[in-house]
Amino acid sequence: MTLVEICTCLLFLQYMSQNCSSIPYPHNVEPHSDKIPKNSDPAPTTPPTAQPEKPTLLLWVWPENYRWNFSDCKTFYNIDGCHLTDDRSLYNQADAVLIFHKAISWDLSNLPPSPRPPFQKWIWFHVESPTNTKRIPGLENLFNLTLSYRRDADISVRNLLTVSKTPNKFELPKKDKLVCWFVSNTNPSTGTGTRMKYYEDLSKHIKVNIYGKMSGSHLKDEDYYPTMASCKFYLSFENSIHKDYITEKFNGPLSVGTVPVVLGASRENYEQFAPGDSFIHVNDFPDASALAQHLLQLDKDDEAYRRYFDWRKHVSATPHLIIWNQEFITYICHACEYIGIHREYKQAHNIYRWYFS
């Protein structure tokens, strides 16, 4: 290239650098605009972010061999956060395994195989009180998560009351019975001695309508809640006394419009789950005779009795179970909901030291 040609090129480049800013943009697009000119091809769209795959929860053993349709979690409780299965062939793909404590053999031979997949969590599933819990040796440090009635469990299977800003509509059910108790377990070795002794003292002063095996009769599941609702008071007597051990025996009468008369944890513990004026605690009276006199007085005083339902104006209680005696459904659905939300690693150390404390 000659010197003249080189100079000509340099002059052209200088001219272009000085005048490129004056090149007009299309009339319908401003400088630095993200708008697309008319008649131009649209920019490629970013594909939607893929939803994370649902984790798999493997139910290792059906509790008490009670079986149901896993779709009930979605149907009844609107829980659909995981893939529930009892297919053990999926063990190596399962994100979590739910293991029912009462079904574990003493020699641990029916536990899932080890070593477990490194991403997998084992959930200790136990809702009995410490009084009725066998300390199977070797379980203390096997689990990642705990499922229990206790508030400090990883998965706490409590049915909590809900508060609303607007007044609730509540109509007191028709009552034709004063005091009722549904009871089947009277075996003192399971911790029932205290409640049986209190019942015997109470029944000397007031009539108690008994249902269940103790009475030699059996209510149909669909009759359980309607019968409970027809009673003014229900004996919510737990079989043993432990922190947070407050079961469906308490939530059931609350939800159907019956006043629970509780024997179990302290009043302060109960008030962590329900308003203090929604129930009667046996500890508020010196003996069963005094409690009976209080119940008989309330039976004559409608205004005083109705005050036990003032809390319903702003607090809602729903049945713990859709159908009585299906509590295992709610527990397993809660586990499904939990692992669908919580993907982080966790480990439970010495579950017995925690549970029996």
From TrEMBL:
Q: Where does this polypeptide localize?
A: Golgi apparatus, Golgi stack membrane; Golgi apparatus, trans-Golgi network membrane
Catalytic activity of the protein: an alpha-L-Fuc-(1->2)-beta-D-Gal-(1->4)-beta-D-GlcNAc derivative + GDP-beta-L-fucose = an alpha-L-Fuc-(1->2)-beta-D-Gal-(1->4)-[alpha-L-Fuc-(1->3)]-beta-D-GlcNAc derivative + GDP + H(+); an alpha-Neu5Ac-(2->3)-beta-D-Gal-(1->4)-beta-D-GlcNAc-(1->3)-beta-D-Gal-(1->4)-beta-D-GlcNAc derivative + GDP-beta-L-fucose = an alpha-Neu5Ac-(2->3)-beta-D-Gal-(1->4)-beta-D-GlcNAc-(1->3)-beta-D-Gal-(1->4)-[alpha-L-Fuc-(1->3)]-beta-D-GlcNAc derivative + GDP + H(+); alpha-D-galactosyl-(1->3)-beta-D-galactosyl-(1->4)-N-acetyl-beta-D-glucosaminyl-(1->3)-beta-D-galactosyl-(1->4)-beta-D-glucosyl-(1<->1')-ceramide + GDP-beta-L-fucose = a neolactoside IV(3)-alpha-Gal,III(3)-alpha-Fuc-nLc4Cer + GDP + H(+); a beta-D-galactosyl-(1->4)-N-acetyl-beta-D-glucosaminyl derivative + GDP-beta-L-fucose = a beta-D-galactosyl-(1->4)-[alpha-L-fucosyl-(1->3)]-N-acetyl-beta-D-glucosaminyl derivative + GDP + H(+)
GO CC terms: Golgi cisterna membrane
- Where does the record locate the signal sequence feature? 1-22
Checking SUPFAM superfamilies in the record gives: UDP-Glycosyltransferase/glycogen phosphorylase
Note the Pfam families from the entry: Glyco_tran_10_N, Glyco_transf_10
| Gene Ontology molecular function: any one | 4-galactosyl-N-acetylglucosaminide 3-alpha-L-fucosyltransferase activity
**NADP among the record's keywords?**
no
Q: In which pathway does it act?
A: Glycolipid biosynthesis; Protein modification; protein glycosylation
| Domain annotation Fucosyltransferase N-terminal: ranges | 53-157
InterPro entries xrefs: Glyco_tran_10_C (IPR055270), Glyco_tran_10_N (IPR031481), Glyco_trans_10 (IPR001503), GT10-like_C_sf (IPR038577)
KW Nucleus (keyword) present: no
Q: How does it sit in the membrane?
A: Single-pass type II membrane protein
The name under which this protein is listed is Fucosyltransferase
Gene expressing this chain: FUT9
